[in-house]
Amino acid sequence: MTTLTRRIQTHYNLLAPFYYGLWGRHVHHGYWTDAVDTSDQAAAQERLIVELHSLAGRPQPGRMLDVGCGYGGSLQWFAKNTAAQGLGITLSPVQRLIGQFNLRRAGLHNRVQIQVADAQQAWPLPAQSVDLVWCVECSEHLADRLHFAREAWRVLRPGGTLCVAAWLAGTHISAAAVALRQKVEQGMLCHPFGTLADYQQWFESAGLQPTQTRIITPHVTRTWDICIALRDQPLLRWIAPLFGRDVQAFTDSFTALRRAYEEGAMEYGLLVATRM
Ligand SMILES: C[S@@+](CC[C@H](N)C(=O)[O-])C[C@H]1O[C@@H](n2cnc3c(N)ncnc32)[C@H](O)[C@@H]1O
């Protein structure tokens, strides 16, 4: 395991109770229709899943794999709304523990499970064994997205679908915007973000056909207004430095992230590809 991968694992282990307590069973952005949408964060997070699922033409998988599944929030959504069975992989044993507990409590543990595995290695599934590969906000942590796309191709059955929600690099941006984006990448323990075109290129190189893309940045930025307000609560401000340099840099980067969206240094994208 590389040093960065180890730090990512430590981050999600250490902060798992906080993420879960403050943010619920999804560890990803929310989607708000417009400025007057009054959805709370949990509803908005669920909406992001619905938007990605809709963009893909509402696939009804028999079996699925969720890469970087967190507490299995997406798996739960699929288990409740479709007949899917499946597996999620995460780097974090603590996320797995909380996620498996949730799945058991919801009576879904016989249909969907969570396993600890590094998505940068071979994925723990046979070739052509799933109809859907789902990946929400994990590919940013992966060093080699071509490996990610190749593994997606390998485990997907012909006709199967890859759905990705990702933080993207903005294009044609100034040096100052690049520096802002790099602050976010470092604070969030990510490898340099890819552009939409980079992802499409990785998919095509792996033999996947990109079918749909959608940039939804204005719908998701409110996420960071909420995170910044949480971070700035006196108790959390006091606690954060106690968790060490990485957590301090992580919370510090919230403001940069909000600005990066505003200034076009970053975008938020949904992508769909098919294995022919
Ligand atoms: C921002 S969270 C998203 C979690 C989940 N997809 C969701 O939307 O709720 C990022 C997730 O990626 C996982 N992750 C990061 N690097 C990984 C790797 N190399 N292999 C497997 N999972 C990884 C983390 O453990 C975490 O669960």
Distance between the termini: 33 Å
Structural class designation: alpha/beta
Report the mean per-residue pLDDT as an integer.
Answer: 95
Q: At the third CATH level, what is the topology name of the domain at 3-32 and 59-172 and 192-223 and 267-275?
A: Rossmann fold
The CATH class of the domain at 3-32 and 59-172 and 192-223 and 267-275:
Alpha Beta
Low-pLDDT stretches are none
Which percent range fits the helix content? 40-55%
Instruction: Based on the coordinates given, report the CATH architecture of the domain at 3-32 and 59-172 and 192-223 and 267-275.
Output: 3-Layer(aba) Sandwich
Question: What is the N-to-C succession of helices and strands?
Answer: HHEHEHEEHEHHEHHHHE
Quaternary state, please? Answer: single chain
> What's the CATH H-level superfamily name of the domain at 3-32 and 59-172 and 192-223 and 267-275?
Vaccinia Virus protein VP39
Largest sheet: 7 strands, mixed
Task: Name the overall outline.
Answer: globular
Ligands, deduplicated? S-adenosylmethionine
E-strand count: 7
Question: Order of strands side by side in the largest beta sheet?
Answer: 3-2-1-4-5-7-6
Strand content: 15-25%
Number of helices in the DSSP assignment: 11
Question: If you compute it from the alpha carbons, what radius of gyration comes out, rounded to the nearest whole angstrom?
Answer: 18 Å
